[in-house]
């Protein structure tokens, strides 16, 4: 039998507030989002911090959901994702893991490297330029999500790509938001 | 005529034909913002050109990034109408504790050339 007390203590040690692993539906994303917000409100954080953590969470998870839907991965093993929200030493970390096609991984890695090389002022300029580009509703995205995430992060975003199988990599994204201004 | 009820993730949208106030109020992070705002853009294509005046009232507590794009596109339609001589203005309402909403309003205002009030 699994030792749940041990499992719980491991979660506590890592400061894990919420974790989810499985088929990533819109209703799951919304429910977890509401739970995070309620938790942060009870922690009496400033409105700005609550908004930043929530925003990083929403952009990360909606990006994943869009990718799963646009690549016909719903209800397949590669349509499953992990999201973990943790608090440690006054910092909130929003981590997510999802399958992406190997062909897309290289492009994404280059893009993330570029975002990480920019300072907040440059990110703001990039955000505004992207905002002015014509919308492409079929992609469901305004191409702003990862810029927004990088802008809200208090440190450089961390990521890695793990080999999942011959077609897919597993994309890990770790974003940290400081719990005080 | 446009009237959309709010949901936990999408705002109320309503045009008042008496006061000519177009209201968008609530949360805005629907799973597909472009789909959600489609009727709004249709309204701006079909009804808005026939109006002589209009006020856009935004009372949005949180927007995901694709909603930000949709709202900017709406405001840009208003800006073009203003430049063509139409009587239009924007009122952005924010909750005092929501500093990010104020920052976003100031950001938008900086890039738009039309009457734009930020109120709490």
Spatial strand arrangement across the major sheet of chain A: 1-2-3-5-4
CATH topology of chain A: Heat Shock Protein 90
Residue-averaged pLDDT of chain B:
96
Extended strand count of chain A: 5
Please write the string of helix (H) and strand (E) elements of chain A: HEHHEEHHHEE
Average of the residue pLDDT scores of chain A: 94
Oligomeric state, counting identical vs distinct chains: heterodimer
The CATH class of chain A is identified as: Alpha Beta
CATH architecture of chain B: 2-Layer Sandwich
CATH topology of chain B: Transcription Regulator spoIIAA
- Coarse structural class of chain A: alpha+beta
Low-pLDDT windows of residues of chain A: none
Report, as a whole number of angstroms, the end-to-end distance of chain A: 45 Å
How many DSSP H or I helices of chain B? 3
Please give a quick description of this structure.
By secondary structure, chain A is α+β, with helices and mostly antiparallel strands.
Describe this structure in words.
The complex is a heterodimer of chains A (181) and B (120). Chain A is an alpha+beta fold and 181 residues long. Chain A has one domain: Histidine kinase-like ATPase, C-terminal domain (Heat Shock Protein 90). Chain A is built from six helices and five strands. Chain A has a five-stranded antiparallel β-sheet. In chain A, a hairpin with a 4-residue loop joins β4 and β5. In chain A, α2 packs antiparallel against α3 and α3 runs antiparallel to α6. Chain B has a single domain, classed as STAS domain (Transcription Regulator spoIIAA), CATH 3.30.750. In chain B, β2 and β3 form a beta hairpin. Chain B has 120 residues and is of the alpha/beta class. Helices cover 38% and strands 31% of the residues of chain B. In chain B, strands 1-2-3-4-5-6 form a six-stranded mixed β-sheet, with helices on one face. Classes of the chains: A alpha+beta (181), B alpha/beta (120). Chains A and B meet through α2, α3 and α6 of A and α1, α2 and α3 of B.
